[in-house]
Amino acid sequence: MAKLPKVPVVIVGMGWVGGIIAAELTKAGIQVVGLERGKSRSTADYFMDHDELRYARRFELMQDLSKETITFRNTESMRALPMRSYGSFLLGDGLGGAGSHWNGQTHRFLPYDFEIHSKTVERYGKGKIPEGMQLQDWGITYDEIEPYYDKFEQMAGISGESEANPMLGKRSNPFPTPPMKKTPILQRFEEASKKLGYHPYMIPSANLSENYKNPDGVSRAACQYCGFCERFGCEYGAKADPVVTVIPTAMATGKLEVRTFSNVTEILHDGKKATGVVYINTVTGEEVTQPADVVILGSFVLNNVRLLLNSKLGTPYDRKSGRGTIGRNYAYQVNSGHAVGFYDDEEFSTFMGAGALGMEFDDFNGDNFDHTDLKFLHGAGIRISQNGLRPIENNPAPQGTPTWGKKWKETTLKYANRVLTVATQGASLPWKHHYLDLDPTYKDIYGKPLLRITFDFEDQDRELTKFLAGKAGEVMKEMGPSHVEIKDKLDPYNIVPYQSTHNTGGVIMGSDPETSAVNSYLQMWEAENVFVVGASAFPHNSGYNPTDTVGALAYRAAEGIQKYLKQGGMLA
Amino acid sequence: MPGLKLGNSRKPARSKEPDESRRKFLKASGMTLGGLVVGSVFGGVLTDSLEKKHAPAPAPASSKPEASLQDALMFFNQEQFKMTEAAVERIYPEDENGPGAKALGVAFFIDHQLAGPWGYNARDYMMGPFVQAQATQGEQSRLKRNEMFTLGLEGLKSYCQQKYQKAFTELEAQQQDEVLTAMEKGDKFPMRGVTSSSFFKMLRNLTIEGVYADPLYGGNRNMNGWKMRKFPGNQMSYAQQITKEGLVQIQPKSLQAHMSE
User: Fold this and answer.
1) Rounded distance, CA A72 to CA A495, Å?
2) B-contacting residues of A 247-286, CB under 8 Å?
3) Partner-chain residue, chosen from B35, B121, B234, that has the shortest CB–CB distance to A219
4) Which domain of life is it from (chain A) (predicted)?
């Protein structure tokens, strides 16, 4: 095995987290090695990108599951089986990671989210939290994380309405660019929801509304609303992506070395501190040891957890005793509730769009409404999106229409441009029996155990879905369609249909080492020179997209790492 | 093609110069960027097109769809191809709106997909053990998709032989629909290695993909799948149109348009 000279900092995974931390550290003069298991990428790779089959159906940008996947079961009484092909969520791969294939919706979480346990108890009493729900404060408040949100938003050039949403925490600065275009479809949603007394706002967008030069001096061009965003790369570089923002900033310092095709399989440690990582050079097959003073885990949620478990670093979560933290509080997103409006007399240009083009209101998100008489906590954002409906995946027909043949063809052609949807994106709260551990049977191509997910929807989620879908339905009806269909039932969690890539938890943050794996600087309680950063640190998932919070945590961690390199020891 | 009134299939209309929208975009944004420009894949195109100034648009590629030299088989034998072609035509039949799956080349699309990485599950986890799954856990077959498809066609063939003493292709359209309905329901429709309902699902998904994927994959001939639903395909920008009321109709473009830019 080759052993390389020691470096100050090694980062596992070069997506948003890796890119942001690399940029911040290298700007401060610190030498960084970034290990990326996938290939390099640039906008030049997206020349043939408007290809629904290749990118949306065959998952061009995603991790190759033949090498590595996860296993899944709903409950402990089931045998977990591998996710053999893509469905419920999509794992990124290559330079930029999931930051290359996201839609760009850039929400902040609510002040309530960061202190969810305290605030719930304060308003409703302890009895409101159901048995088994493992609600926890984050060990950081909204006011403390706010400056880091701002940093991420300034860097990415987030387009939004700074004053429009009274339900959010305070902003220290306005959005750096104005909101996206308010299309006729969005205006219709806005009018309907205002009429019902709600507070709609333009979804904060990482698809630039205008040309923008960020504080690091990186310039990007405005979004063209081409309708190929999620699951696609942006050929214009208009969508904020690590590859067109933080990675070039870090590279320009001359202090970042990115090694692609370098798949980290183990963190080396002595039980107290990490000494480096082992990775496989997937081109040559060679195993390489890279010693480092600080090890940063910046890969996707599931890989962060798996790498810790496979490296035997940190105490694995034991569901029976409730002890241990690695794998604790896996959560997801509750997205099923929605309302579809069919318009017999109108057509819309729904094929145009951008990943983050939409409007939303938060009147039923977080604790913005009274839950006293409701059988669930938290809530969902209610929204309309105009992301660009593509023809393979969008063939709407009213219920009762045959699913193939002449009638189906006729009906789906008729409604191809005549359907609008008001959707909900709901919070997913943590439970004792939802967790991540190593699968006892299935292995990756290197013979390392796969990560096992044990997760299902609960009554909390079914109640939330029913309530929120009803609200979405009211808005949809107000938007004047000929016919509305409301989906308010939530089936057991199924890994087959795509739902969301907002997986969270497993290496959660907090102020108590008994119930959290990392502190508010994302520093591991059990290994002070290891920082585990990403949505893996969320103690629960909110009713929003996670990337803004992931970005904020990465900036927070970058600050912590610099402090640690100077002074050492636990930072919080 | 009855009913399809969207231009002559032999000479696709080119409403604009192929790279006009792109040029407009570059003019609007690319030129004015300062500092470290990382954005556009079309940076090179910009200088090219400025230097060439009014370079003539390249001649449109010939697009006569029916007798293309590409219309040959990578995976199916003749019988499998014909069965597939007949079945997909029932799923997406020709009607007053325009061509069905057959004329759109969907059977060629499926043949090519089964011969390629997707058909061979190249990027799927295929290590064992293979265990019977719960409904929420997804496909757990040890077979590759193209093996499942072949066995599905075999099951279809024997079902028709047994019930009608005929090949599927020889049945009346209504009988074919009955067969497909039974297959979808999984109602006494024996197959090896795949249930008839999951085979049907695969067939249906492939049909929709073949109708609406970019023509580069062998289906959606002459973009007629897109034209029927007024989908403009591969456009570089809707920035000027997206604020307009109603449906904006735009002459579609496929990815082939990029090859001449």
Assistant:
1) 8
2) 248-249, 252
3) B35
4) Bacteria
Residues 148-187 of A with CB under 8 A from B: 181-184
How many other C-beta atoms are found inside a 10 Å radius of the C-beta of residue B187? 10
Please determine, looking at this structure, whether the domain spanning A2-567 carries the CATH number 3.40.50.620.
no
Q: Using one digit for the tens of pLDDT, what is the confidence trace for B129-174?
A: 999 999 999 999 999 999 999 999 999 999 999 999 999 999 999 9
- Pseudo-torsion of CA A249, A571, A564, A6, nearest 10°? -100
Residue A282 has pLDDT above 50, yes or no: yes
Other C-beta atoms closer than 10 Å to the C-beta of B8 total 8
Q: CB distance B136–A236 less than 8 Å?
A: no
The question of whether A107 is a catalytic residue gets the answer: no
Nearest of A144, A101, A99, A136 to residue A119 by alpha carbon: A136
What DSSP string describes B31-84? GG--SEE---TTHHHHHHHHHH-SPPPPPPPP---TT-TT-S-SS--HHHHHHH
* Predicted complex ipTM exceeds 0.90: yes
pLDDT in tens, A265-275: 999 999 999 99
Q: How far apart are CA A250 and CA A27, in angstroms?
A: 7
Q: Rounded to whole angstroms, how far apart are CA atoms A510 and A297?
A: 17
Smallest CA–CA distance from A185 into chain B, residue: B245
Interface probe, candidates A404, A407, A420, chain B, greatest B C-beta count within 10 A: A404
The pair of structure tokens assigned to B130 is: 């293979």
